[in-house]
Structures are given as C-alpha cells and as structure tokens.
Design brief:
- There is one protein chain.
- By secondary structure, this protein is of the alpha/beta class.
- It folds into two domains: about 5-245, Alpha-Beta Barrel (TIM Barrel), CATH 3.20.20.60; about 250-275, no CATH class.
- Helix content is about 45%, strand content about 15%.
- An eight-stranded parallel beta barrel has the order 1-2-3-4-5-6-7-8, surrounded by seven helices.
- Helix 5 packs parallel to helix 6 (about 105-120), helix 7 packs parallel to helix 9 and helix 9 runs parallel beside helix 10.
- The longest helix is centred in the C-terminal third of the chain and has 18 residues, at about 250-265.
- The protein binds 3-methyl-2-oxobutanoic acid.
- 3-methyl-2-oxobutanoic acid (KIV) binds near residues 150 and 216.
- 3-methyl-2-oxobutanoic acid binds next to strand 6.
Length: about 280
C-alpha cells in the first residue's frame, strides 16, 4: 500500500499495520491503540479485536513472571515471548522491548540485542531514554530496525527515579522531557511512549512532534494509548490509578476454575460426551 493510500484508508480497515500507517493516523487525527501481549493466545485475541500495536513489554516481568519490577527480565525471555506474540499477530504491528542491560552501553550492543528480537518476529523495538540513547536510535533506524522511544517514567530507571513517579511536573523537568522528545524524533524514532506525565505536558510534547505519541498515564492528548493487558482486563486485584478496567478476567477465570474443580470432584466431568 502506497503512502497516498495510507492517507485515505481508515486505520481499522488496514489489513496489516506498517510504519506509514502510524504517521498517516497522526496526520488524520485517528487514535492509535496498543496493548501489551506476552504470548500467542492474547496476541491473537487482541489482534482480532483490532488493536493496532502489540507491545511485548518487559512489564512481562511484573505482570507475568512474579518479579517486583522490570529489571531482572532477560533478553532470552523477551525473545521467546516475542516469537509467541508474532505467531498470534496478523494485522497488528509487533513491538518488543529491549530489557535493562541490553542497549545502554552503545549502538553496537543495542543492534545485536535488537536483531535477536527482530529475528524472533518483532517489527520494531522499544527502549527507554532520550538524548542519552540517540546514537542507539540512529544506528538501529539506519540499519532497518524501527525504534519506538520511551520517556517520562522509565521503569528500568526505577531505582534512580526513587520509585514509580509522575515525571515532568515542574517547568524545568517538562522542558527536559520536551528536549528529549525532540532528540529521539531527530535520531529517527518512529513513535514515542509517554509514561506517567501530566496531561498538559504530554499534550504539549504531542503537538511539538511529527511522530505519534502513545500515552500511558499521560492523559487524552496523546496520539494513542497503551495499557498493560492484565491491568486493562482486570486479571490482578490491584492496578494503577490511571487504569480503567475494561473487564473482570480474574472473576471469569475464578468462576471457570471453580466450576471445573466442582465437576471433577463430583465425578460429572469427564462425562461420556468428553471421553473417547
Ligand atoms: O513494558 C511495558 O509494558 C511498557 C509499557 C508500560 C509502555 O513499556
């Protein structure tokens, strides 16, 4: 599909999302939808539901693997999750996170790590930071690996930031955020995640950029939104305050597991219809 066709086809009707569709969506004022996915079945479900981008996030560490934060997640874990998500994704663009310790030392380290995710099926990678990772963004973009940047609260810096905190609350830090956003755009990033940023600051950054912004806890003024799927679908008891729960999967799974256990204990499952 050429650039002109991209501009005229509504995003929901695009059979396979590619980078030009994201730029066209921003130009047309169409909101982008992104959810995390860490396995094949959720990727397939979200893809069929029309989610535009699937993020194999290193939030897998907290959401799925019982870790306290994203820091322990390994590249091997991200590679196997990415391969599973890529199987389930037909229309959605698959973006995979570079975990902590796999890109910070320089462009070569970032390229070698990103190449593993691309070989596993990612169409783009995401990593955290602004001007300090501009050289990594530049090399990857020039080498054919699209990069989504990530600013605001950057979970891999949780220790340095003193916990999970809203970023850009005062004029000086909002200014640094804007400068970092312009730096990642200039380096070649195709989109930018803004996490835990005041809505007015996120709106200002969004207006200053040509590339789309995707917010999480950053208000409605971004070009798109992303949520961790387990928060969005109500799988866990707790979710951050900015999350709206669009389902109650915890209740649905509890009900299914309880019904199964009751039937096994009563000897009513398996019945003849479910036996050979
Ligand atoms: O890992 C992740 O899920 C993320 C989102 C919070 C944007 O980076």
């Amino acid at each position: 599909m050429g650039r002109l066709e991209c501009m005229s086809t509504p995003l929901a009707e695009v059979p396979k999302l590619r980078l030009p569709h994201l730029a066209a969506a921003k130009a047309a004022g169409e909101k982008l939808t992104m959810l995390t996915a860490y396995d094949r079945p959720t990727a397939e479900i979200f893809d069929l539901a029309g989610i535009d981008l699937l993020l194999v996030g290193d939030s897998m560490g907290n959401a799925m693997l019982g870790m306290d934060n994203t820091l322990p997640v390994t590249l091997d874990q991200m590679v196997s999750a990415t391969a599973a998500v890529a199987v389930g994704a037909r229309r959605a663009l698959v973006v995979a996170d570079l975990p902590f310790g796999t890109y910070e030392t320089g462009p070569e380290q970032a390229f070698l790590s990103a190449a593993r995710l691309v070989k596993a099926g990612a169409q783009a990678v995401k990593f955290e930071g602004g001007a300090r990772v501009a050289a990594q963004i530049r090399l990857l973009s020039q080498s054919g690996i699209p990069v989504m940047a990530h600013l605001g609260f950057t979970p891999q810096s949780i220790n340095a930031l003193g916990g999970t905190r809203v970023q850009g609350k005062d004029d000086a830090s909002a200014e640094v955020l804007l400068r970092d956003a312009l730096a990642v755009q200039e380096a070649g990033a195709f989109a930018l995640v803004l996490e835990l940023v005041p809505a007015d600051v996120a709106e200002r950054v969004t207006a200053a950029l040509e590339i789309p912004t995707i917010g999480i806890g950053a208000g409605a003024g971004c070009d798109g939104q992303v949520l961790v799927w387990t928060d969005m679908a109500g799988l866990d008891e707790w979710a951050p305050s900015f999350v709206k729960r669009f389902g109650d999967l915890r209740a649905a799974l509890t009900e299914a597991a309880s019904a199964y256990a009751a039937e096994v204990r009563a000897g009513t499952y398996p019945d003849p219809a479910h036996s050979f």
